[in-house]
């Protein structure tokens, strides 16, 4: 039977259809080892169920997608689900475009429904496990997820705030092959004991160059609103220095219900792995694999095959 997240408006009850998930029946040892042991979640019954947290622009999509290929689990980005819904014709599209283009969060009900449909379709195709990117974004979403399934590990990617806006503004997607690139040159000098960060642009191959598009919500104003909302709902980011003056952003802030930050929620459950990205993909990817204790994963997989 299909696994479905169902929303009951009057209560916190959501369900993953027939699967016997229980918040109590966690296979996670307590207290967890440092960085949780990356192999948490690899069981005979199912594959990993991981969540990627991180500010807009931090690279969640990039690293979640690489890990999903490595581990053979689907990478499910709720931002992509929202963009697919936006691209479809229908009343939902119109409703979403106003919300997304102001940098606001889509309602928990809409996002849970989109995710539910995606999981259902995946299960029908025989998918097992997942890496969620962009979900949960609110405490309510985290509670819903916690009610219906066990999350093994929450990876919290971090970059200095100065880098995030530039990275968002540098994002490009090829409208033909769908791959993501980044044209930003990041070169942040180290100061006050903090290391500098430099990232080369991730440039597209020549055939994609003329087909690059920028996300409609990657304007400076909307990016800053999204970063502020992230700060309020997920975890602290010292963004107070950013100049916020536009009305859309103030609306977004007013709409943003202050909730206990998600980072703290998962930290208190011993599931949070913090990861400060040391630079671009060439520096960060091997270090991330090491932190996840997956550095020898490919070798072991091929040896076992
Ligand atoms: N879990 C979620 N809850 C509410 N809104 C979401 C969620 N995931 C995505 N969205 C909506 O989709 C937009 C794009 O999401 P995403 O691609 O994850 O962007 P980013 O991480 O760059 O902010 C968000 O700004 C928000 O409007």
From TrEMBL:
Assigned EC number: 2.7.4.3
Pfam families: ADK (PF00406)
Top-level taxon of origin: Eukaryota
Gene3D superfamilies reported for this sequence: P-loop containing nucleotide triphosphate hydrolases
Reaction catalysed by this enzyme: AMP + ATP = 2 ADP
Database matches in InterPro entries: Adenyl_kin_sub, Adenylat/UMP-CMP_kin, Adenylat_kinase_CS, P-loop_NTPase
Top class in the EC scheme: transferase
Subunit structure: Monomer.
Protein family: Belongs to the adenylate kinase family.
NCBIfam families: adk (TIGR01351)
Entry protein name: adenylate kinase
Organism (species): Brassica napus
